[in-house]
Automatic annotation (TrEMBL):
It comes from the Eukaryota. The keyword Glycosyltransferase does not apply. One of its GO terms (molecular function) is zinc ion binding. Keywords: Hydrolase, Metal-binding, tRNA processing, Zinc. PANTHER family: CYTOSINE DEAMINASE FAMILY MEMBER, TRNA-SPECIFIC ADENOSINE DEAMINASE 2. The keyword Flavoprotein does not apply. Its EC number is 3.5.4.33. This is tRNA-specific adenosine deaminase 2.
Length: 217
């Protein structure tokens, strides 16, 4: 993972090399393919720390009947479990961890990434309806006090392929009812927006969660 010079503004930013980007995104697309084969929205992701996968996830919304079980949330749960098993501090690990995901994280997932201070997110196609990295709302770089730190986005890697996978899924019939899951996701997204707004307007408020940047590929 390439690193930059430190500055008074905070720790040095870092980002993937071209080799890392291609390798890890290839793996993320394999995970997305598994999601598609299992009747889930084809999104796959990896969390990589020190050249090791510490979290891997695909959408599990239909399987779990839980509209919040997005690939990123599944992978973040694995990251937390990995830190517990390894006896490592979550904050120190997450600040040196990159996320590779086939589709732009939604507002909910982008907020979770901020709270854990994940510094770099590499994604394929844009999420025009729910994207939290600038498509629907810019959670990734907005000035939001007490909501973690902003993160760098590297976008557009194999975007057309990611879009085609999504089109393939939505041509199919979803046996678990897209509308119900969509309503639940909309409600949770509005809740995330409300909490981000509360933290921005009322900086004295704090959340119980521990306080654990965009270029084209």
């Amino acid at each position: 993972m390439a690193t930059g010079e430190s500055s008074d503004a905070g720790p040095a930013r870092f980002g993937p090399t071209e080799e890392e980007l291609g390798r890890w995104m290839d793996s993320a697309f394999h995970v997305a393919g598994d999601a598609l084969e299992n009747g889930e929205v084809p999104v796959g992701c990896l969390l990589v720390y020190d050249d090791e996968v510490v979290g891997k996830g695909r959408n599990e919304v239909n399987e779990s009947k839980n509209a919040t079980r997005h690939a990123e949330m599944v992978a973040l749960d694995q990251l937390l479990a990995w830190c517990r098993r390894s006896g490592l501090d979550v904050g120190r690990v997450s600040r040196r961890t990159a996320l590779y995901v086939t589709v732009e994280p939604c507002i909910m997932c982008a907020a979770a990434l901020r709270f854990l201070n994940i510094p770099v997110v590499v994604y394929g196609c844009r999420n025009e309806r729910f994207g939290g990295c600038g498509s629907a709302l810019d959670v990734s770089s907005a000035d939001l006090p007490q909501t973690g730190t902003s993160f760098q986005c590297v976008s557009g890697h194999r975007a057309e392929e990611a879009v085609e996978m999504l089109k393939t899924f939505y041509k199919q019939e979803n046996p678990n009812g897209d509308q119900k899951q969509l309503c639940l996701l909309l409600l949770f997204t509005h809740f995330c927006l409300f909490m981000l707004n509360v933290c921005n307007v009322c900086p004295s408020w704090s959340l119980s969660a521990p306080n654990p940047r965009t270029r084209k590929a």
